[in-house]
Design goal:
22 strands, single chain, alpha+beta, five-stranded antiparallel β-sheet
Amino acid sequence: MKNFWIISIFIISIFVSTTEATAQALNLKKETQLLETSLSSNHYSKKQMDDELSSKSFSKFIDLLDPEAIYLTAQDIRTFKPFEKQIDDELKGKMWKLLDVVIPIYKQRLTEAEKGLSDILSKPFTFTKGDELSIDTANHLPFSEFDEDIKIRWKEHLTIEVLNQMYNICTIIGQNNLLTKEAEAREKTKIIEKRRVRRILDHPEGFDNYVASLYFDAITSVFDPHTNYMSKTSWQNFESLLTSEELSFGINLDESETGNILIESLVPGGPAWKSGQLNKDDVLLELQWEGKETVDLTASDIQEVEELMGQSNTQKLNIKIKKSSGEILSVSLIKEKIDNDDNTVKGLILAGSKKIGYISLPGFYSEFENLNHGCANDVAKEIIKLKEQKIDGLILDIRYNGGGSLYEGMNLAGIFIDEGPLISLKNRDGKTSVLKDMNRGTIYDGPLVVMVNSSSASASEVLASTLQDYNRAVIVGGNTYGKASGQIIIPLDTTVGKTPNQFDNSSSPHGFLKVTIEKLYRINGKSAQLKGVKPDITLPDIFDVIDYKESNYSNALPYDSINKKIIYQQLPALPINTLSKKSQQRIGSNLAFQDLNKFIKTYSDWMQAPVPLYPPDFKKYNDDRQVALKTLKKSIVKPTTTFKVENTSYENQVLQADPYKKELNDLLLKRTQSDIYIEESYSIITDLINSNNK
């Protein structure tokens, strides 16, 4: 049995819990009281659930039940409204009514919607020139008063879904007239909508438990975005990701509110991780086993997709995914045994006027039963190999790195810093402590550039800010995510276990709580909370126009700083101004970055534009976006002549014995060779080296 305290204390990544509940029928009232006790005893803010927080929980609960306001009616909301400010009383065991009222009404509305949506989709749709729909994701739509009003809401929702299906079908077959596929698109949409409802009504863990899990998530959400309820099943799924010894692609799946199957996380060292092409929140579109027909994943559920992915342990699987930018990619993978001894970090050489080492780190992983084995240890091994190749400098790429083990983040900082304080922690009682690098010496003390973007979060921000405060590295890229808090995972029922620090999760039906217990601060006393880490040299970041940062959450912990004086020995100041000016000159004359900046402006305009509902206009609306994406990709994905990407001598020997690894490696080399951000980072570190030489 793993020590859950060790596992928990390092979890500071951005984590979105699933809403599964346990298969065993829960005592929902008991679970609610356990949740309240755990929140009030452990959460950093020391918030106590009162009428104000009850109202916020109530609003969130309704939003989780019906985010598009297509199931519940205004009358239903009025029926629930008397309990809006009584959630605090339910948590304290003084009453128990809200779920008893919500569950039967919600089930009835879903049953009615299943039939009503199906009836609408049984008749041909008519489209009128000039019709359009404004998409306002910031505000919840008002609930409908009458049956006819809700049917109008359904029709608007279904029109968009049918148009999307018409467009997708015609794109695949090269058909221009969307109307020719209206009937086929309606049938597909009917399947999707029916499954969407049945997934809730026939939830494998029980309908009541499913609704209760939304209720618990609504309660935890008012504390902060990273405090979540986890059912027993959710915990078991999460725990299974920590180690894996069976043949696997190393992909953990989740399902979005709209029914899309997406990547929830990647297992470090797995084929998906090593491909470098897959990321959290990528949407799965198609699967195709080698030599077999392509399977469209439209309307599929997680179980079906997992069964499809489990059909073979030896053949190659082609996975078509859609990135958050809208780009469509195909990735080929073969299952591997994910071995804890497998080095998941890989160093490359960028050979040009200077020989620069390059290491990409997608996550701060750790083997919790052996704290000497984790990403910091793997990075150290790669640096030693790169130093044997006589590198002049090193680029560490932590773009898209959502965090992970704080312990590993600190160890990684220690590779580059001789000794001293690394980060401050403040607990719920206001007490601060300082984590230090206690090991004298460094593994690498040469020129260093760290690449970040707006998806670099948590432990990534800790590493970047620490190296920045010490003047140890030049931080390059986009402003980071802005999460500076730490979480633990604890059982709601702490009375069951072999020892105080071991929880036997097989002996209790109750769930778990991932709870924020501390805030993190830079050694200069400032925090990355909400503000993120500002790079020394800023590069255009397409994700700046997407609402995907800590500051976009209304319930995020506030920014603050601490006055605790921490003594540390800064290295000599880096020539940031000189490096930045040279970088901006290059970017200004670089056509690829110019095109990227234009696209960022265009993308921002798209976010505000209404969606046309007339098929020819809808096609043009989507075609324009696809053309813009392809044009941008053609512009920015070009092999650079500034350097040539090579493997280390050691890696070349390993690849000779494994054709599949060589295939993945060739893709990695090609992608690295064609990344304009890596190219600019190479130029920056070259300038740094030349500056040092002068």
